[in-house]
Give the backbone structure.
Amino acid sequence: SQQGEEDPQALSIQEGENATMNCSYKTSINNLQWYRQNSGRGLVHLILIRSNEREKHSGRLRVTLDTSKKSSSLLITASRAADTASYFCATSRGDTDKLIFGTGTRLQVFP
Amino acid sequence: GAGVSQSPSNKVTEKGKDVELRCDPISGHTALYWYRQSLGQGLEFLIYFQGNSAPDKSGLPSDRFSAERTGGSVSTLTIQRTQQEDSAVYLCASSRGGQETQYFGPGTRLLVL
């Protein structure tokens, strides 16, 4: 019952490189959130972008949203080994707050 | 302040037994959510509570699953007659509601033998 897909499924890069992850979804949304997960446990919130926004920044993170293409991207600049984790996008839609998650991208950053 | 807390961190049970999982949301958050994450199904919504409104139970996979939220704060997710396919990490989140950010707890890893 997942809303969308993320690609790539896995990404391996060297420290200092940029990492880009993409998320596509199927229906109109209220907002889209990006989360990070380490070791299969709790999710850490990164950024929330609303449907009327196109781009947001937070430190080394940049998120874009294209509602016409029903897609979003997460860019991590100057990656660090500590950025190694799984990254998920999640959308909410309609009059409900429940989140529908994407399939996730596993990022590996090598020192 | 404190984040969302969940207990126990890990739970091993035998097939057919009942289990209770607890979630303490962030103080002042009116909305509370349960999700689960399993290898085969990814991250999926189970149920959410918003203030005094009737909970949205649309994600509960069967009538063996139920949840309560007492006093608008602590929530308990109960799984009756557990099955092996119930094995997963159960995640709780809370928010101020109204499409705001959901903050997640560390999860409870449930293993049904």
Observations:
- Chain B touches chain A through 29 residues (CB under 8 Å).
- The mean pLDDT of chain B is 93.
- The first strand of chain B starts at residue 5 and ends at 7.
